[in-house]
User: What shape does this take?
Amino acid sequence: MSRSSRAERVHSPVVRLTHWIAAASMLCMIGSGWQIYNASPILPFTFPHWATLGGWLGGALLWHFAAMWALTAAGLIYLVHGFLGGHFRRDMAVPGPRAVLRDLSSALRFRLAHHDGEYNAVQRLLYAGVLLVAVLMVLTGLSIWKPVQLGWLCWLFGGYDIARRVHFALMTLIVGFLVVHLALVAIVPSTLVGMITGGHRRPSAAKEAVR
Amino acid sequence: MIPPDLGAARPELRKIERRLLLRGTLSLGMLSMLSGCDIGDNDGLERALRVVSRFTDRMQAALFSRERLAKTFPASAITTPFPFNAYYGLDEVRTVDEASWRLEVSGLVGDRKPWSLADIRRLPQQSQITRHICVEGWSAIGQWSGAPLSAFLHHVGADLRARFVEFRCFDDYYTSIDMQTALHPQTIMAVDYGGSPLPPAYGAPLKIRMPTKLGYKNPKYISAIIVTNRFPGGYWEDQGYDWFGGS
Assistant: This one.
């Protein structure tokens, strides 16, 4: 088998690059976001200092907005590439409920096989879901950052106070995704290699991709 | 609703936190694992973050429109009591004799004559019920009245092409805004709160109220207004809050 020709690669360079930029900036946004939250908590708890980024509110805001630009840039490149390059159509077409139930039940019995380069129904659902959450996260973030200049957006999310809470709630979904995502990587470590080097598909998977 | 920050302990805490600014911030395992690099050199990092913040400021200025108005609310939506907020506690509020108080006017203006409170009240007044949003995340709705800052700037013959309008306060606070925001129709020289003269807790005798900017850009206890092209910074801005601070 020839080494990583285009069709055999698990992840394209664009996907890998934007994945790692997004991963780093997402962690920065979560850590600094927790520090910002601590300045005026919505719920009766604050995040421990060791888990936050920025040291104080002003530092956290510097981090939050710097990471925002990095995440936005990576996100836009990824979305354009995903739509135009066929990655979404090919790999992330939202599966039917039957396929989801089938794969979910085998996943819960730890019997779901993983083929690098192929997303199963549960993965498709999870990735499409977290992308949607990420987009909503950016939109709620914009609406509480610019409630006057982007007043219509803020209105769409129920006004400043509600949008702020929605932004927080979406963060918990993203953190929840991260936990599941990292657990799955721990179970199938070859996926980590694939996301770093591009890896290569198994012969069977490669054949299917060509079909 | 978040309880208003009335505690005197908070400013002290903040002073300590500020000293820690970005030092020690990267003790955070999360990021050191991520970068795997030496985390001792934070000054370069802080400089880099501030460069990005200036870029963010430019984006904020580009997003800003003088025609776009902040949402206004009915009187029933007013937050009572409206929270007191400053870089010190409520018991440290400074007051002045309103009869002898004068507003100093300087910089790129035609007429530097100081203004009395009565002079300001003689300008056409307007009232607004708008949401005050604090950089900390909490917000509160209040009612302020006074003359549009744009009317005042025209009156003193200010150079409206100047870049900044700077505010100095007798509680040693200071901040500054862009000329576009200074000329926004909802940027007012507030002398009344809730229909009565501004009480000491809310900035007597003069506060600059602009619903298009965060709380730290809405200075109280004003003593001087300066029109300038030299970047004036601000009390919190110099410590790391973004200078534009727009909503």
Observations:
- Chain B touches chain A through 49 residues (CB under 8 Å).
- The CA atoms of residues 219 and 236 of chain B lie 11 Å apart.
